[in-house]
Amino acid sequence: MAYTELSSRSFHASPISLAPMVDKTDRDWRWIMRHITRCCLLYTEMITAPAVLRGNRSRLLGFSEREKPLALQLGWDEGALLAEACRIAEDYGYDEINLNCGCPSERVQRHEFGASLMANPSKTAKLLESMAKAVNLPVTVKHRIGIRSEKNHLSLESYEQLSRFVQIIADSGCRKFIVHARIADLDGLSPRENREIPPLQPGLVYRLKEDFPHLFIEINGGYRTPEAVDEALGRVDAVMIGRAALDNPWMLAEADRRWFKAVEPVPSRSDILAAALPYIIRRAEEGVPQGKLLAPIMNLFAGRPGARKWRRTLTELIASPSEDFTSGLENAIIHLDSWCHERH
Q1: Catalytic residue among 39, 86, 101, 103
Q2: Domain ranges within the chain, ordered by starting residue
Q3: Which residues, including other chains, have CB under 8 Å from residue 85's CB and lie 6 or more apart?
Q4: Which of 26, 46, 120, 313 has its CB surrounded by the most CB atoms within 10 Å?
């Protein structure tokens, strides 16, 4: 196979994407979200390269064509393993591959990938080069604005250090950077705390776009309203939405019209549930845990009358016997009119 230079490959210049989130953005969550937004770029949860090579590939990598455009996020610190994982991903039909340089978890730190890679931009660039030489897919990077660790004597928190990281990675041919606008604290904060405690500094990401106008700069972190997204899109190329898509998935219902100029009508929540019911039942029969199947629709009515009753009912269904699951879900949907008064 003839490979094109990474810098010449077309990546998905989607103005809105939905962030990779461990134990959240699996194929069942993506299936539901694709019924809410047809255009936003979706990501898998982070999957390590060894898991791709040695794990259950069908379970880890399988997806339906409906989920596309879809990017696979990989994590690891060995170029050969990442390259092989990329080859497998290309065979599965992914549209884009992303290298995780932002995860701060202790498990990830022990293997020196994720956010730890920001301490060694030259090594990270070589990893990206190995990945790019293995496939013809676009390869991108997701990282923080910096990292700190007193125990490891690390303090990479200045704009100059961030800019140097981006320059070295860009020299490898990478043209798309998703930047979480928080420092990653590697001294014991949990991943959740690292999403909340370090302050957001979007100004640093905006400055990156000013200094690297030829790169595609996408910002991530704290975007929970369409208005906030609009403001950011005036400064950078794209916005990645994370927890807001879990807490209020219906926030994305207008995404296609608002940010992609789509003309198709917005589906109703009733439409989503009508499509989801046979899918959820089929997947439950395939052995997928009930909790994982109900999680994507748990907050479908966030902020509306009856939302609490809906969540409570689904929570009870998670522990119900499998033989009662289908009828329980059907009854919950039937009672929505009385709970929510208006289902659109």
Answers
A1: 103
A2: 6-260, 269-340
A3: 47, 49, 52, 53, 74, 76
A4: 46
Q: Is the predicted pLDDT of residue 2 greater than 70, yes or no?
A: no
Q: What is the CATH number of domain 6-260?
A: 3.20.20.70
Q: How far apart are CA 222 and CA 229, in angstroms?
A: 10
Q: Do you find a cis peptide bond into 305, omega within 30 degrees of 0?
A: no
Q: Return the number of other C-beta atoms located less than 10 Å from residue 8's C-beta.
A: 9
- CATH architecture of the region 269-340: Up-down Bundle (1.20)
Q: What are the tens digits of pLDDT across the range 191-238? A: 888 888 889 999 999 999 999 999 999 999 999 999 999 999 999 999
| Catalytic residue list contains 103 | yes
Shared fold status for 6-260 and 269-340: no
Q: Which two tokens stand for residue 139?
A: 């390869």
pLDDT in tens, 316-328: 999 999 999 999 9
Residue 218: strand pairing partners: 178, 238
Question: Taking phi first (over 0 means left), then psi (-120 to 50 degrees means alpha), and beta for anything else, what does residue 104 get?
Answer: alpha
Closest CA to 184 of 154, 141, 218, 225: 154
Q: CA 220, CA 228: separation in Å to the nearest integer?
A: 12
- Nearby residues of 52 by Cβ (< 8 Å), 6 or more positions away: 60, 61, 74, 84, 85, 88, 89
